[in-house]
Each structure stands twice: as C-alpha cells, then as structure tokens.
Design a protein that fits this description.
This protein is an alpha/beta fold. The chain is built from five helices and twelve strands. Helix 2 packs parallel to helix 3.
Length: 238
Amino acid sequence: MPKQVAEMLVENATMVLSDVKLVRLRWPVGYSPEFRTGQFITVYWPDTPSYKRAYSVCSCVEDKGYFEIGVKRDGKMGTRIVDWAKVGDKMLVLPPAGRFLPEFGPGKRMVCLAGGSGVTPFRAFAREAALRQLSTPLTILYSVRTPADVIFNDELHELAEANRNLHFRVTCTRLTPEDPWKGRRGRINAAWIKEQIVDLPNTVFYACGPTVMVEESERLLVHELGVAKENIRVEKWG
C-alpha cells in the first residue's frame, strides 16, 4: 500500500544559525498522524517529487498541529530549504517513521550523544520531558566544531535550567588555544560518557549524527564501557 502523502504549509521558517533553518510545517485539516517523539519525516517539493529527504522531527508529540524540522545547508534539499523555504510555501510530507524513541519509563535513564545537526531529535526528547513534567534523567552530550555551531543553544539551556533532570553539555572540537571558550574541548570520549553513568543496566544510550561519529560512539559504548547492545539506539547519516 502506498504511503499517504500530506501537503503541508510552511507556517514558520527561521534561521537559528547561519546555516541552519527551523521550519514549521502545519498539519492540514483532518490530519492525524501516528507520531511518536524521535521519529523522522520525509519531505519533498511539489515541483521535484523524485527528490526526497528525511529529517528528524525536532518538535515532540506534545506539540500539536505541526512538525518542526531543523535543516542544515547540506546537499540539494538542505540548501534549497535553508536558502529558499519561506512562510506560505507548500511541501509534501510522508508519514512519520522510525524507532529512535525516548524511553521515559519508570527507573529509566537516558544519555544522548549528538554531533552537529544530530541534536535535533534530542531537542524533541527534551521538549517532551519538559511539557509532560517527566522525572526521567536525561543527559545530552553535544559535540560541535565551535560554540557558533551549537543548534538550539538558548532553548536547550533554558529547558535544562527549568528541569533539574535534564543536563545539556557541549564540547568543541576545533578551537584554537587562544579561543575564549571556557567549556569542554575535544571529542566525546569514554571518560566523559562514564561521568554521566549512574545506573548502567537501566540507562539507554542514544547516538545521532554523522556516520563516523555514531559508529565511534557505538564502539566506545560497547567495547570501552560495556554497554549492552540492546540498550543502544542509533541514527546516522552521511
């Protein structure tokens, strides 16, 4: 059976970084998707139906009536969306899919490893935790090149300030010694991840971002930290 396609209006299109645009797609009347936080949608333009691109939804299940996606200027689709998408445009959207889902159950803890635009689904995790006032401990470790590359910086810090169970921590990988950044430097490593672990058997680990970063995260978790594979969720691209 072919997947149902919905035409959605671009309700908002805001540059959140110099190369990242936050796009809000308004659901049409009567649209009622089976959507769960952490899933992705596949979008395309009406005039180029053969070229489609999947993006993690960075809004959550509590954000009713729309999907938000954070799009980086990358490739044909990403470049067109960042440079040209505007309020009033229409895009075609395939139904939500994917199993990269937060586990907010009793006794669970979550540690999320993000690289670059891989932070987008974790923004959705953090929003759901905040809007539902959940007590599940959630830690996001985010690797970027420089502080200027942190997506959703203000929002995620504000969510962390309002929710004592949410921790948002950033590390920068391409700074000069003279850079005034006072935070952590270097890539996500086993030692940094280990600092976040309180109850290993009940912690679910997530990794999202470029393929190289996600595969290295899997290696660290399994081979250096002894995390069971069934407690690891990954989403990668490129």
